[in-house]
Amino acid sequence: MLMQRVKPLSRILAQGSDVEHGLKRSLGPWALTAMGIGAIIGTGIFVLTGVASATRAGPSLTFSFVVAGIVSALAALCYAEVSSKIPISGSAYTYTYATLGEFLAWIVGWALVLEYALGAATVSVGWSGYFNFILHTLFNLNIPQAWQHSHWDATPGIANLPAAAIIFLITALLVRGTKESGTVNAVIVAIKIAVVLFFIAIGLGHINPANYHLPPGPLAGAGGFFPFGWAGMFGGAAFIFFAYIGFDAVSTTAEEARNPARDLPIGIIASLVVCTILYIIVVAILNGMVPFYTLNVNFPVAFAVDSIGLAWAGVIISFGAIAGLTTVLLVMMYGQTRIFYAMSRDGLIPSMFVRLHPTWRTPWISQILFGVLIAAAGALFPISILGSLTNMGTLSAFVLVSIAVPILRNRHPETQGKFKVPFGPYLIPVLSAVTALFLIYFLRQGNPLVWGFFPLVWLGFVIWLVVGLIFYFSYGRHQSTIALEETAGLAIRQPPVN
């Protein structure tokens, strides 16, 4: 019964073509690619590389990025096919609703809310670190420690106020409209890429090969290129997978793309290829410049160049990092409200989230509500926990999107998109699902344990899932559009999967 509530694909496509009452179509392939790059480049290079190197992988983080890039590429191919066939707001949530049914669609949508909301909170903490670094280096100003850190940080404080402040600013921008947001994003992406190339040019001349093979010790673990073993390398891949999740945010813009069937696959794949190459180069240079165990800071790239006596370069890179993290925030918070927009339109959550502003045509109510919640999370929780929970939500959604590819081909062979996964409908999707589950397992690496054996990140996700299921069975299951049609005897049954 739970798997039979599949939303008719014809209705999904019809909702996406409702120009008069839907979201404005204003984004082309270049804008979508820039949006993807804006979401991907940022946190991975500028923030999480430090924590991942120091606590999980060491110099082998280069391999971690390769592993995470492969998993992302497999998922990207699945996203590209499904999003070109179902070009509508909602991303993996909508794809699952059209293939696997309402119950699993709710789980995916709920996981995506976790991904985008806590992902934005994670980025805001990194943004705060670079902002404080600039204040201290350029102006010798210091925000009190109590207002730079949460209670659970390594350096305990009360709340991270700069993290909350940037969330409120991004919220105001997004409420104003996607066209204005897209323009700001395009400018900042260009600046950010220039700064990344600047770091590469400087860092290549300051690599110390000895840093790739440090001797064993209390800080360097077992030493060598794999100081924490292969498990540490895979744990690093699971942790920095956060750095690759931006490409799926592109698929949430389907209702605002001018030609979604063509433009979405271009935006998704092009942004992923560009960013993967840059990641591998940057992390190799970073681990060669300084000993990996010194990088457990929120601003590792600026820290590395400052450590070799190039304070002026650290300031330039810090400005680039702030620009990069700002675009990540922009895309994540943009995508999060579009998920809620889709779920509200289906009746699974209250109708207030589907209301658009009469002038700006944006889901302003949910944007403001989640702006407040995300700001609170960024101010009160540490970056390691926020990042790990974000990965859990993302990878869970990837598993179900991968499964959706063969089901969509079998159930709706008449639906043709501009892109198909190569090597048939099973090989790539199965590999994508299995590798995503593989990284979920290795998220336990470097994560605090509850009761001595259960990773905190798994427990947090289970709690979030239970809360979501309680809401679904008490409200969404009875109030969804398909549920009301069933009550009236009007529901359209989908044919079974062959």
Q: Any overview of this molecule?
A:
This protein is mostly helical and 498 residues long. The protein has one domain: Amino acid/polyamine transporter I, CATH 1.20.1740.10. The chain is 67% helix and 1% strand. It has 18 helices and 2 strands. It has helices spanning 9-16, 29-40, 43-57, 61-85, 92-99, 102-139, 161-176, 178-203, 229-240, 246-250, 260-289, 300-307, 311-345, 364-380, 383-411, 427-442, 456-479, 481-488, and strands at 449-450, 454-455. A two-stranded antiparallel sheet has the order 1-2. A hairpin with a 3-residue loop joins β1 (449-450) and β2 (454-455). The radius of gyration is 22 Å and the shape is globular. It starts with 8 loop residues before the first helix and ends in a 10-residue tail after the last helix. Mean pLDDT is 81; it is low at 492-498.
**Kindly, what is the distance between the CA atoms of the first and last residues, rounded to a whole number of angstroms?**
18 Å
Instruction: State the helical fraction.
Output: 55-70%
Tell me the CATH topology.
Amino acid/polyamine transporter I
Beta strand %:
under 5%
* SSE pattern, N- to C-terminal: HHHHHHHHHHHHHHHHEEHH
- Classify the secondary structure makeup into a structural class: mainly alpha
Name of the level-1 CATH class: Mainly Alpha
Task: Summarize the structure in short.
By secondary structure, the protein is mostly helical. It has 18 helices and two strands.
